[in-house]
Specification:
This protein has 906 residues and is an alpha/beta fold. It folds into 4 domains: 3-13 and 26-248, Hypothetical protein af1432; 273-372 and 404-531, Rossmann fold (3-Layer(aba) Sandwich), CATH 3.40.50; 540-724 and 741-756, P-loop containing nucleotide triphosphate hydrolases (Rossmann fold); 795-905, no CATH class. Helix 2 (31-47) packs across helix 12. The N and C termini lie far apart (73 Å).
Length: 906
Amino acid sequence: MPRENLSFLLAFWGKAQPFSADTAYPLAHPLAYHCLDVAAVTERLLSADAVRRAALAHALGVAEGECVCLLVTLAALHDIGKASLPFQAKAPEHRPAVLSDYPVLADPGHDTTAWLWFVHFAPRVLKERLAPIGALNRLLPAAFGHHGRPPSQDRPPNRARAYFPPESVEAANALADWVLARLGPAEPLRISTDLAKRAALAVAGLIAASDWIGSAQRWFAYTPPDHDLDSYWHDIARPRAEKAVQGSGVVPAPPAPLRPFHVLTNLPEGSATPLQRWADTVALPAGGPLLCLLEDLTGSGKTEAALMLAHRLMASGRAGGLYLALPTQATANAMFDRLGGLYRRLFEPEATPSLALAHGDRGLHPGFRAATLPATQDDQAYGDGAAETVADVPAGAQCAAWVADDRRLAFLADVGAGTVDQALLSVLPARHAGLRRWGLLGKVLILDEIHAYDAYVGEEIAALVEAHAALGGHTILLSATLPASLRDKLTSAFRRGIGLAPPPPPDARAAEAMPYPAGTVLCRTGEDTRPIAAWSHQARRLPVRTLATPEQALDEAEAAARDGQAVLVLRNTVDEATSAYDVLRDRGLSPLLFHARFALGDRLAIEAEVMRRFGRHSKSEARAGTILVATQVVEQSLDVDFDALFTDLAPIDLLIQRAGRLWRHARKGRPGREELVVVTPPALPDPGEVWVRAALPGTAAVYRHHGVLWRTAGLLETDRAFDLPDRARALIERVYGPTAPTPEALVRSSTEAEGQAMAGRAKARAEILPLSAGYTDSHHWEPDHRIRTRDADDPAPLRLGRWQDGVIQPWVDPDPMADRPAAIAWRLSQVSWRLKRLARAAWEEPDPALARAAAEARKTWGRWERDLPLVVLQPAGEGSWTGEARDDEGQTLPIRYCPRRGLSLA
C-alpha cells in the first residue's frame, strides 16, 4: 500500500473523547488502529479457546485455521462504517480535513453505514477473496451489528453516496484492501448460506466481546497515527490483545483430567446412586453433539449425574464449561450453593474458574470470580453526548450496561447457574442475544426440571435445544416426570439441530412401557435408552390421603406442628398461601411464608432460612414444630425435607414432584407417618363445570386443563398410593396419554386449555429467532426486560424504593463493605409481579421533588433498566410499607409490601 494512502486512511478517527485544552495531544485513536485492536482480540480469544474455535469451524464447515482467518477479517471490518461522513462529523475537532467541505448529516448508525458501504462501494476483491456472496450477506451483518442488534438493511440506495463521499469510500476501501491482503484467508472459503445463517448470531457475540475488550483504554491506549498498519498490527495490537484477553477474565479455565465420581463430588466411595453410576460409565459416542436424558425420582442425584457427564465431556476436550438452567430463582439459588463446593474440581487445581449466578447478588457467594470486562459506565456518546442510535453508544458504556446485571455474567463464566429464561434469551431477539449465544457455545447446557414449563416456554426450550445442537453443543435434560409427548418434542428438536429426521411418535402402549428410571444418549448414530435400577433409598409405596377443604388441611397441619413435626403447606397461588399464613399466625403459630412475590434481597434471606430449617443438614431442634407455607417455589430442585405435607390438587406429575419433599432424607426418630395429603374435590363420574373452581378457585385458575386435574383426582381415589418409581411412568401416561378420558362437563375447559397451549406455542414460534433466518433486522431487538420469555401473564419486574428525607433509597440498603453498591442494592430491591399494564413509573406526576429523586436514583441503574417501574414506599406500621403505582390508563394502584408477607395490593 502506498505511504500516501496509509496517511490518508489514518486521518479517519475511530475512538475519541472530548478535546481537552490540558492535553498535549487530542484524545483520538485512528479508525484503522481500532479495527486492528478488535481483530487482534478476536484472534487471541479464538487462540485461547480451542472448544469454541472448533465449534465455530464446524458450524461454518471450514478448517479451524480458515475459520480464524475469516473471523479475524470480519472483526477487522467491524467498524468500517465509521469512515462515513456522518460519523466522522460527530467529533468536529477530529474530523478529517478532506471531509471539511461536506454538510453534516444525521447519522443512521455506523452499523447501517457499514452495510451500505458493503452493498454499494466495497472493493470487488472482498466479495471474490473472502467467501461466497450469500455467506457474506449473513456474516458481515454479524460483524457490523456488534452493538446488540443487526444493522438496518432498508436504507434507500440514494443515501449511500451522501453518507460515503469519495474520500470516505477511498478510506474504507484502503482499510479493506489491507485487511484482506494481510489477515484474510489464502483462498476464498466455501461456506454455504445456510451454515452462515446458523453461525451468524454467535459471530456477532464474539465480535461484540472483542469490541468491548478492544475499546478499553487501560489495554488499548489511544495512539498517534505514527505507525504503518503492519507495524501497528504486529508490534502494538497483538501484544496488547494478549494482555487484554488474559486480563478480561473471559479465557476459559483448563478442565481437570477425568476423575472418578466420588472424587469429583467428594462423596464417599461406593455411595453413588444407580443413575450416577450410569453417568460415570455410559459410552459417550464421539463425532458430534450429544443429548443425554436422565429420568429418575427427585432425590436420586440427577444433578450430580449430569455434572459427571459434563465433566467427562470437558475432560475429553469436547466442552469448555457448563450452564445449568432451572425453572425458578429459588431453584437457581439452591443450585448455585450446591455447585459452590464442587465446581472447582471440574478444572485444573491451579486454575481459577469463574462461577456465576444468573440473578441475584454475587457478593452473597464467596469464591465468585467474574469476568472483568472493561465496563466504563461514564463513557459519553460521540458528538454532544447524546446517542442517536444504538450503535452510537460507546463500547464501554454498552459493556457496563450489560455486565452490570449478574444474570448476564453467567454466560461469560466457566460455570453458570440460573433461570432458564436467561438461556432462552439466546434464541429470542433480545439486545446482545449474540453474546449469550457466544457464551453458550462450547458449553454443556443442562436443563433441569424439564417438565416444569408451559407450552409457550416449552416451544422456546425446543428452539434452544435445536440451536445449541446446531452449533455442536451438548445438552443434558433432567426430569422426574416427563410425559412421552414432551420427550418426543425435545428429542426431535435435537435431531433437527444435528440434521436428522425425527422418528415416528410412540403409541400409548409403547410410551407407558418405556423404562423408568432411565438414561438416554442420543447422537448422530442413534438413540440408546437404558433402564436404571431403582435406588433403594427412593423406592417406596407412598400412601396418599385426600381432604375436601383447605381448612381441614390447615387444622391437620396445626396439629402436626404442635406434635413436633416439620410441616409443609403448599398452596397453588400466592394469595392463597398468604391467607393460609395469616390463619396459622392468628392461631399462635410462627409459620414461614415463601413465594415468588418478595424483593430479591428478602427472598434470598427467606431461602437461606428455609434451607436452615428444612434442608439436608437441618437439625432436629430447628425443624421441630415448624411450618412452611409455600407456593410452587419449593416444588422443584430444592433439597428440602418435611415430616408432613399438605398440598392442593395439582396435575399428577407435579404431585409426584411434591411428594419428593416428603421424608426425603434418612432421619432417626422422625415424628409422624409417611403420607401425602392432597386437598381435592372428589372425582365424580359426572362433575359439573365448576367442579374444581368451587372447591379450589386458585387451582382452577393456575391449572386450566381441568380434565388433567379430574384424571389426577381419580387416580388418587382409586390407587390411594404412589408406587415409586415402579409405576411413575404409568401414572403420568394415564393422565397425559392420548387415550385418557375427560368427562363431558370438563371438555369445554380442557379444550380451552389445549387451545391456549396451541396458541402459546404459536406465539412463541412468532418470537423465536429461527436458525434459517440468521442475524437480520426483521425483529425489533429490544433490551432484555422488554423481551417476553414466558406467556402474556408472566410476572414483570418492578423495583421498590424507600422515600427518606427527600431521597429514594433502594429497599435493600446499599453496603459497599459487603460488595453491595447501589447498583446491586437496586437489583436486590426488584420483585416480579403478575400485574398487567403496569405503567413505567409511579412518579410521573407533577411532583418535581419526587421526579428529581427518581432521576437521581436511576443513575445507578443499567442503561436498559431505566424504564423499569419504580414503586416508592413509605412506612405504614406493623412492618408494612405502602406506595402507589399506576397502570397504563393512569389508574392508581395502592401497593403494600411487607418483608414477611411480600407484595400485594393494599
